[in-house]
Amino acid sequence: MRDALVAAAFRLFLERGYEQTTVDDIVALAGVGRRSFFRYFPSKEDVVFPDHERCLADMTAFLAASEEDAEPVRRVCDAARLVLLMYAENPSFSVQRYRLTKQVPGLRAYELSVVWRYERALAAYLRGRFAGRSDGSLRADVIASAVVAAHNNALRSWLRSDGQGDATATVDHALAYVQSAFGAGPNAPAAPSVDVRPESPEDVVVVVSRRGAPLWRVVQEIETTLGRT
User: Fold this and answer.
1) Continuous H helices in the chain
2) Who is most buried in 3, 73, 94, 203, counting CB within 10 A?
3) What's the pLDDT tens digit per position in 147-166?
4) Which of 2, 1, 47 is nearest to 23 (CA)?
5) Are 32 and 7 within 8 A, CB to CB?
6) d(CA 29, CA 46)
7) Closest CA to 175 of 166, 165, 183, 184
């Protein structure tokens, strides 16, 4: 019945438009009552995003099941790939939803709230992994935002192509940027070293950094060091 309601809703959205379609229209086409609709969907907006609650639950469970020695940035990137799999399960539906969401401001706002919940789930996991660091919360929030931004950039590129091409390769390429910037693997940029010379009149701070180190990491190290002097 849940699938029947989604199918009826999208048929009407395409024929009449989202704003012109009511819940009564949807249940009439599906052949069920209003009570049945609200048993599955709290609102008309929710029928446009019928799979996000399941995906968010899967992501939360995936992160909770992480091994203690799992590299945290790689783990949240793998968690983000669960969202991609959800979209790739039904490319035609995903493309239709993308087009509809672009046309309806209320749906765009709803989608942003869904994206924010994914980001908070990633950040919560990372805060637990970085709990012993003085900058743990900041690092967790920055990385979670970067993962979501990279994933969504690649996902939307795939949706704009009408679901053509290899979505997995596109998202993997985008998430590789995040892992190279924040990950702890052998190819991750080294943290900059800072030499403070407080005895000099100008109180000079000399920064030595490997080429390619993220600017945020350099600035963070300077601020931390200045705070200690």
Assistant:
1) 2-16, 23-30, 34-40, 44-48, 52-64, 72-89, 91-103, 105-129, 136-160, 167-182, 215-228
2) 73
3) 999 999 999 999 999 988 89
4) 47
5) no
6) 18
7) 183
**Type of residue at 149:** A
What is the Cα–Cα distance from 175 to 168, expressed in whole angstroms?
A: 10
Read off the tokens for 213. Answer: 């180190």
Q: Give the Cα separation of 26 and 15 in Å (integer).
A: 12
First to last CA, the chain: 65
Average pLDDT score over residue span 215-220: 59
Residue 114's contacts (CB-CB under 8 Å, 6 or more residues apart) are 49, 52, 56
CA–CA dist 29, 7 (Å, integer): 10
Q: Report pTM.
A: 0.74
SS3 204: strand
